[in-house]
Amino acid sequence: MSPEALIDIFREALSVIVMLVSAIILPGLGVGLIVAVFQAATSINEQTLSFLPRLLMTLFALMFLGHWLVQTMMDFFLEMVNRIPQVIG
């Protein structure tokens, strides 16, 4: 196995990880930003106020994107299993 092939596999794995994590994190980040602007505008300094909306948005993102997340992980896993002969020989 050449080092270029290993680097290519590692690059693909990192891109899949970044894509899956960003699909979960970005909606919560957007809601957190909106709540932070609301808190700054109203001078409410309650730390727990931003926690619940971010948590709910993350759970909704997992609920609605769960099928796509699992399908993406399975596609990547099957691609890696299919590459085993190329990696070994």
Radius of gyration: 19 Å
**What number is the mean pLDDT?**
91
Low-confidence stretches: none
User: Main beta sheet, described?
Assistant: none
Looking at the structure, what is the overall shape? elongated
Q: What's the β-strand tally? A: 0
Secondary-structure content class: mainly alpha
| Assembly level | single chain
Q: Classify the helix fraction into a percent range.
A: over 70%
User: What percent strand?
Assistant: under 5%
Number of helices: 3
- Order of helix and strand elements from N to C terminus: HHH
Q: Compute the separation of the termini in Å.
A: 7 Å
Overall description:
Role in flagellar biosynthesis. Keywords: Bacterial flagellum, Cell membrane, Cell projection, Cilium, Flagellum, Membrane, Transmembrane, Transmembrane helix. Its main location: membrane. It comes from Shewanella gelidii. InterPro entries: Bac_export_3 (IPR002191), FliQ (IPR006305). The protein has 89 residues and is mostly helical. The protein has a domain of 35 residues. Helices cover 87% and strands 0% of the residues. The relative contact order is 0.15.
